[in-house]
Amino acid sequence: MQTADRPGLSDLTNLVSISATTAARNPQAVYGALRERWGFVAPVELEPGIHAWLVLGHQEICQVVRNEQLFSRDPNNWRLYAEGVVAPDSGLGPMMFPRDNAYFSDGDRHRRLRAPIDESLAGLDEHRMARFIRATCTDLIRRFGDQGTADLVSDYAAVVPMLTVAGLFGIDRDQGEQLRQGLIALFSSAAESQEPAQMVERILTNAMASRRAAPGDDLTTAFLRHANLRDDAEIQQSIVLMISAGYETTTSWIAQTLRLMLADARFAGRLRGGRLGLDDALDEVLWLDPPMSNMPARYALVDCTIGGMPVKRGDALILGLSAANNDPRVHTDDSWLEVGNRSHLAWSAGPHACPAQRAGRMITRIAVDTALHQLHDVELAIPAEEIVLLPSPWTRCPASLPVRFTPSGPVDQQTVRRAFR
């Protein structure tokens, strides 16, 4: 079909749901079928009646994310949102409705709101952070280490990132767990999510008030002092962005890496003479199951053509990061040639590329390494093919990783306390 003959998004029917790409056991087969039918930009359904373009190609994603003049990050430019077609309580809201932070901003405003995040990450004391992460991991393992069984998602992978990132903002461990529960609710469309979601605001408001009264060596104090953040709403939303993004993506990276290390024969023997090690596993996950499989969104500011498809002003474009990593034009089928190759798009690209790549890798690497070393003889308690994924159009995080291991003896609590200093 010639480009001029192709119908617009609103005219298309019987489209594949974007969730089919994340729920499938072999997502690349779904992406491949979409490429076969449509090319490197495919129409998909986000929710019933809500359509978007899924950008599947490496060069097409780069074209979109590096051109702020044509493609906006601001959801106010999304036609279906502006016209009220998307329901106010839509599950798309947390990732595709406007918020007062850098993620949903363009141009000068984006650069102003992102600067405090970039500067805070650049100024991290990595040695201190590494000690905190190791101590956090050790303390979590202590809680279930004598049981011989655990769920390495709910007991571990979903907890380490939140406690770490919350700790950077001076939020204590108990409130960090409350914050995690509140953020789960915040990114839910359930009616009962309102009260726990409001808890997030209360925790952050209290943290900001506490640091105004008694400044500390933490990121809350740094954000309060930063001239680029003009009011409490911008400060609070910037903290929400940094904590929620760090929590969601790092949880997925930890869980997927643990799954790979425990289930794949190339890695499973790591402690028993396996061929490939932890850094190879970290990179393979970024290629095949990145923390964000499909990243929302860009919104076309003009009518244009991408990958031969007629994109109209106000159309939403979803970045198929996992699909682009497997783009046959840039990806080789030789797994050995891919070892050490970091030209993937797991962190996106352009002005909105993830600013926390180094910190995220540190958290993930320490978390996985600590679990593999401290849980003796650890192995999956179910066949790998029975691992269930959390339902999401955006990520492919395991819902649980049940494992068994040789129960440990008591942990020296003085050692744990010293590690937190």
From TrEMBL:
GO terms assigned for molecular function: heme binding; iron ion binding; monooxygenase activity; oxidoreductase activity, acting on paired donors, with incorporation or reduction of molecular oxygen
Gene3D superfamilies registered for this protein in UniProt: Cytochrome P450 (1.10.630.10)
Domain of life: Bacteria
InterPro entries named in the record: Cyt_P450_B (IPR002397), Cyt_P450_sf (IPR036396)
Family: Belongs to the cytochrome P450 family.
PANTHER family assigned to the protein according to its UniProt record, in alphabetical order: CYTOCHROME P450 YJIB-RELATED, P450, PUTATIVE (EUROFUNG)-RELATED
Name assigned to this protein: Cytochrome P450
Species name: Amycolatopsis taiwanensis
